Amino acid sequence: MDLLEREAVLHDLTGQLQAAMSGPGRLALVRGEAGIGKTAVVHRVVQLADPQIRVLVGACDPLATPRPLGPLTDLAPRLGWPVRTALAGTLTGTCRSNEVFDCLLADLSTHPSLLVVEDIHWADEATLDLLRYLARRLPSVPALVLATYRDDEIGRTHRLTALLGTLAGYPWVHRHDLAPLSRRAVADLATGHAIDAEQLYHMSAGNPFIVTEILAAPAEPIPAAVREAVAGRLAGLSNAARTVVNVLAVLGRRVPLPQLAGILSAPEDALDEAASCGIVRADGQVTEFRHELTRLAVLEAVPAVCRLRIHRRVLAVMRSGPVAADDLALLAAHAEGAGDPAAVLEYAPAAAVHAATRGAHREAAAQYARALRYADCLPPDQQTSLLEGHSQACLLASQLAEGVASRRTAVKQRRALGDRLREGEDLRWLSCWLWPAGRTAEARQTGLDAVRVLEGLRPGRELARAYLNLCQLACYEHEGVAAVATYAEKAIALGERFEDAGVVVQARFHTAAARMLSEGCGWEDCEQAVSGAMARDVPVDAGLLALGMCWLAALQRDAARTTAAVSRAETYCLDRDLLSYALGARACGSWGLLNQGLWTRAADASQKVLSHPSSPPVGRALALTVLGLVQARQGKPQVWPLLEQAASLVDSSCLLDTGLGWEARVEAAWLAGDLESVQAEAQRGLAVLAKRTHPWLSGSLACWIRRAGGAPPRVPAAEPYALELAGDWAGAAARWDRLGCPYDAALSRLSGDAPALRQALATLETLRARSAVARTRALMRARGVRPIRSGPRATTRANPHGLTNREMDVLKLLGEGLSDAEIAARLYISPKTVGHHVGAVLAKLGVHTRHEVARKLHHSER
């Protein structure tokens, strides 16, 4: 596994090693919980050490009776004869340990050394005495002593604690804490795996060992290695301590000490013993497991009868006094564990409502699902209310399949109950979520059905929202400003009448968005609507509008606006647990990176969307399309399977709505040299667009017909496409350059003169657009234009991977784990240029991620 987020400690340790070689010597203590990566850091320091430094590595073992001076015995073969002789004498009783200490100190004085002693929390008394002896005398020898230990397994009475107290006064002793991985690092490791990165972080708390084990066996609820590690830690506990751990596992991850004391009498000593094994820890008046997966591993081993008894006891204790809102979820869980359906139906719906009001939609969905498992005894109206709540929570948590299924059932039950108002509202919600599910035609029909039902009743907020839904669909489906405005006016009138600010702001947003899509103006009005929704604290409305800005910016190929919109939307939506919107924004972000020519980053972002099990179909289709285009442009295989898979996730109307999906198929055909398919597919797309106003797609398709040698029809076209279709390739290229789209600018220049063709070729070569480079060279040959360069420079040809000097500079800095911005600052170039170089390095090395680059570089250095 890559050493993520360990750059600072590695920098410090290698610096201390270098300083120790010229004196004075030093002692470095690396500490952290089990699985945090202490050994990995030590191994990396060893690999980075100067070859002239002697490396001595020993370790302590978790033995019932530790080996006397066990680490020294491990490394003895690399020590001088006097040390080996003294050590042998000590083990046979013919020599005292202080003679070994003196000999080792003398040996370290003769040669610059790195002495590693791992896991000193398991050390015997003699080894601890050796460290105490060396630590005091280190300033006189050219050595770095590096010791590791688990700080979660040493308490006040542990023998290592006394040594640490002694070392506290030495200025040449340095301490390094290894922290758990951040959410971002866990998400990076999860890229390419079909797993929810946030759930992975929740289960592992950022522990690298647990993260790695889950990723290695994603289908297993509890990986075998984790289960065995937990069992090994529990094996040495007393019965009382094991009982405490079992009770804590049943109670949940964070347990107040008074609650534990209400179930077990005098648990303090047993709790201290349990904490000493590193599985649980006390934080003030709360005790918790270090990792949720550890708790689940313990819970799995608790007998069912014991679990039932604990749940019933806890439920009785918690119900005996006032119930706080924050305790509702626990009560619901204990009610289900206690086998008490009535209590489940009392607490689970209330817990779901409380979670939803806090924006915890995934928790709300889980609580509604819990209640629905016991809802058969409820009246139909109450059952349907639970289904509606479950659907809403699921949809906001990006559990679309479950949410749509519950809403369909709710529609049927409301119809059977004769509740037309709630039936119309359920139809409207169903329509809203069928669009991101890729079922745009059904979404349209369902939305019309909702309006038909509600128009037969007294006007209210429900009808306002139904008109708003049709306004949104008309915008997404590019029906034109007039169609959008018609529904918007009706929605605004009712929204103002019934004081629904969310309806008003969304209707105005989508009216402005329709103008932007059709006429190129309206961005400022959209921004004002988003800011207004966020200021009014209507998170669901604001999240939807923030996502809409991502789509609009990416669709119009505006690099700067896309970057800003995606960053805002992801931050806002993740903070409010609007996972569906956040994943949609992330998919738009991959599209934006593709437009900017940052193809490696675009592919990485797409993989993150695809690896998240909750990504909505439209987002997945967009990510697959981006991957397919990256593959096509780089001349790699498996392009059409990706595009076909994208098309299979959504209906054909959705491909037109998003724009990219249809255009990608045409471009892929052009890159493959299939000009007949280019014209046929583009003409088919334009025919379907005849009743829509979609200048960014119709203009693009017309340009592809022109590039394939055909005569494009007159269609609405966005500015850069209109300029190219009018023969102003220079104006089109300049417009693409201003938008931050180098690839599109190069394509426009293919219609230009010899200098323009050479500029296009240079850009495409920089982007590593192999397929487009081949097409451009063929075009230049046909026009009698020669490229300025005939091939790579001599230094590039001499490089085993074909890397240029600048690419080698970037490669070395990638190996240090630097970001694009940090590399740009180091090399005095722009981050965008760095992005192009990174893409070229990855392509030439035949890898897909920055982590693979670092790994490959590391292996080549060994």
UniProtKB/TrEMBL annotation:
Residue intervals of the HTH luxR-type domain: 796-861
InterPro entries listed in its UniProt record: AAA_16 (IPR041664), P-loop_NTPase (IPR027417), Sig_transdc_resp-reg_C-effctor (IPR016032), Tscrpt_reg_LuxR_C (IPR000792), WH-like_DNA-bd_sf (IPR036388)
Name the UniProt record assigns to this protein: AAA family ATPase
GO molecular-function terms, A-Z: adenylate cyclase activity; ATP binding; DNA binding
Pfam families, per the entry: AAA_16 (PF13191), GerE (PF00196)
GO CC terms in record: cytoplasm
Single Gene Ontology BP annotation: regulation of DNA-templated transcription
SUPFAM superfamilies (alphabetical): C-terminal effector domain of the bipartite response regulators, P-loop containing nucleoside triphosphate hydrolases
Chain segments annotated as transmembrane: none
Superkingdom, natural source: Bacteria
Keywords, comma-separated and alphabetical: ATP-binding, Nucleotide-binding
